[in-house]
Amino acid sequence: xxxxxxxxxxxxxxxxxxxxxxxxxxxxxxxxxxxxxxxxxxxxxxxxxxxxxxxxxxxxxxxxxxxxxxxxxxxxxxxxxxxxxxxxxxxxxxxxxxxxxxxxxxxxxxxxxxxxxxxxxxxxxxxxxxxxxxxxxxxxxxxxxxxxxxxxxxxxxxxxxxxxxxxxxxxxxxxxxxxxxxxxxxxxxxxxxxxxxxxxxxxxxxxxxxxxxxxxxxxxxxxxxxxxxxxxxxxxxxxxxxxxxxxxxxxxxxxxxxxxxxxxxxxxxxxxxxxxxxxxxxxxxxxxxxxxxxxxxxxxxxxxxxxxxxxxxxxxxxxxxxxxxxxxxxxxxxxxxxxxxxxxxxxxxxxxxxxxxxxxxxxxx
Length: 365
Fold this sequence. Notes:
Layout: E1 21-22, E2 28-31, E3 50-58, E4 65-72, H1 79-98, E5 102-109, E6 123-125, E7 130-131, E8 140-141, H2 147-158, H3 171-180, E9 192-198, H4 217-220, H5 230-241, E10 247-253, H6 259-266, H7 276-284, E11 289-291, H8 298-310, E12 314-316, E13 322-330, E14 337-341, E15 344-348, E16 356-364
Parallel strand pairs: 4-5, 4-9, 9-10, 10-11
Antiparallel strand pairs: 1-14, 2-13, 3-16, 5-8, 6-7, 12-15, 13-16, 14-15
């Protein structure tokens, strides 16, 4: 059983993590913005143009639920990559189950013109149009039999290259649209949320960077809408579930700067692009980034599983703090460290359930 120690959320720009700050026998410490600082009982001093934020919560009893949203790029070049991912998903969810997690998975595509963020049914047989049994065939969970077959058959059903809109990849907008339809049962109130995205291009192919253009039509998709931006998804999850929701976005992409992978993808039927926006969103949320050029996605998925598990010892911050963070635990604990990871505060080891935690810091007005 995995302990749900503290809610997860990594928001804002990814900063260099602080050096660990030891609680020792103290109840209250101050965590600096850029490097580790010694224990202090002095609250942060308010600065001009800032506001105090005080966040109190009690670490909830152990909870092992995780909702997974799979976002697949269904453009022309992606069919084989999607099948390779599908062939490894059964071992990924088996590992989650053996870790004690209660998981479920929904799937959508980066094509927001046709699917518009809707959940796609899971299929036992794509050719025969046979969906998985049950009243919610768009939700896969541990009760579904022949999971390996279902993953592959569903990728067959989704296919690739269906019309012009499938080549306008909008993975982040698809996440936002899917989130807006959360009455579909894909999101449980007490569950962690893990998104897995696979694409060989960026948001709208070039991520808003006209210098990355290869095809003429990419110029027409140059402008990113607000719902295409990484921060929009972070803000959307907060608006939907509150600041306590724990989640991460994990991506399998052409990693920025990986010219060898880019050349490999370009040798196929279409030009690939570095996934700058997708990598940024993974960094913002404490997720992991894997390479789409890996022959076997097992290691990528292992990283994702670890990211899900590690998220249970993180708590979100409302903003990128100005100055230090004042942390109070009741009852006090010894031998615990904290560090900043972007706009998340990480506790090592995880704080036990029943502990009262108070965070005080300043945000810019």
